Fold:
Amino acid sequence: MSDTLLHIDTLSVWYKVYEGILHVLNGLSLHVDTGERVGLIGEAGCGKTTLLKTIAMILPAPAAQVPAGSVCLESVDILKDRRRGLRTVRDNVSMIFQDPTASLNPTLTVRTFMADILKNRPQRLSKGDKKRVMLQALEKVSMPSPERVLDSYPIQLSGGMRQRVCIAMCLLKDVRLILADEPTTSLDVTIEEQILELLNDLVVKGGKSMILVSHALGAVRKMTDRVCVMYAGEIIETGASKRVFGKPAHPYTQGLFDATPKLSGEGISDGIAGELPSYLTPPDGCRFAPRCPSCLPICNGSQPSIVTVSGAQDVACHLYTSNEENGE
Amino acid sequence: MSTTGETLLEVRNLRKQFNTRYGALIAVAGVTFRIDNSEIFGLVGESGSGKSTVGSMIAGMYASNGGEILYRGQDIDKPAAKRSQQLKREIQMVFQDPGGSLNPRQTIRQILSFPFRVHSQSKRGKDLENEIKTAIGKVGLPLSYLEKYPQAIGGGEKQLVCIARALATNPSFIVLDEPTSALDVSIQAKISNTLLELQREFGLSYLFITHNLCLIRNLVHRTAIMYLGQLCETAPTSEFFSDPLHPYTQMLLSSIPVMSEAEEQYKPQEVKSVGEIPNPIHRPAGCGFHTRCPFCMNICKTKEPEMVEIKPTHFVCCHLHKAPA
Structure:
């Protein structure tokens, strides 16, 4: 856990649409160390996928603009030097998407997908070697009867098996960073557990880094070292997963956790009133201010800076800045 | 959170088979349960377990291939087209995807006026207007929403419109088919609370179909677990979580990722999740769960277990558990 693999600094991403400009990501900073598992949580539409797409360099080209910020992967700024950036990203990053059905071409067999990835290896593989590598990858994801799967079309596989294929495809290249965009949302709870455990094993054993985006807060708690809470294109709280889940600091995080039904059955809170602000005209101050139950006058005017509370938890909230000025 | 103990709906040995290109798909293979007046009954299972099919048959989307559905003692096992107006008023349904179940070309006013025009005495003019206003007020949406189109409002609000539409006919029983699974947690909380309030206010009964066990824990009075078209276990919710008996229930409970150490203690001893739900076209012989069961015995592979009452109101369908003598 020493050197930084990915470093994102004050990144902004805008989308140009008919109505104007959507200011989605707003000065977001994030870093991922080698071998670190980072969780990313937040409501739908808070920019989680946009962030992952920026890292993977697959933002829709003319619509999305990056007006500010840098994304450094292995000390290459992939936004400035696109040519070298693409090479670095393709060698080091691979992404698992939410819907395995939509991310596999229905007209091709698993063998074709996998062969496509192997084509870009620096050293050429013989036909036999290729097959061996593919089978190994499928075995690693504990796929039942890999030989048969290799010649199957996606439609012949179940949802869990399709997601296993996607993960196996990630393993064909020795990538250093895995971007998992809600890998289990479309799966059942028993299958979800299997897939998450598998992914976790592969990441930990392979010494890889991972950014895990998920709505399943429990899964994020179990599988990540550090968690970032996103709201409306900003990271509002980050800290060690155990800490954040144990004692959330930001009012949004608290509301989010309260709204999640618990197994202990203490009832459900009313959720957080209101909805995400429009990205066309986001609030000037804290983006959460219009929904915040403990909003201060200062919140509507100025953006909160990031403050470290109780040792290792970074929070962007005026509640904590003013506390500090008052000497706690 | 109390029920009157009077049976509202009873399902006996319900079966449904779909004939597909690949053979007969037995979606529901003999399901028996009852729902009391003012009770929230939860039906849980993985996708493909047949839980939505059960809900659809109760709501009259299609007829069964055997068994009975009794509503207030009267057999209603027929598709909606053959049901009486009175019955259609009584049983309503809310679907999983609120976007897909509202007509995008109609305003909320038009959507909500439809059930009144069909079922109510007040078919036009001021009366209708008042009814629509009451309906949207019941779910706590502002009147200005009546002029909006579904695409202009959020997912949670769409679902509230669907609930208002279901309530428009003054039903006593609503089938909720995964009403919150397409929504974010903060919105899910709002919808669940609205549903609970409405249930208490109007004494409604719900069949709550979901795969989210945490929701079940917080909303539902009695729970049934469904696997491959059959019920594995039925019990009052509190007992269901404190003393799960069927291995599949234990597997489900131990698979839930939870958010705190305190919740961790509610999980049963780890039953590791292995395998996937079999194809219902090729059902395994014997107990449907034996292919994944960690406690599988020889008898499980050949003989189907029967539902037995282990404790009062706690039923389980597994060879491991014998009825108390």
In short: The radius of gyration of chain B is 21 Å. Residues 47 and 211 of chain B are 8 Å apart (CA to CA). The mean pLDDT of chain B is 88.
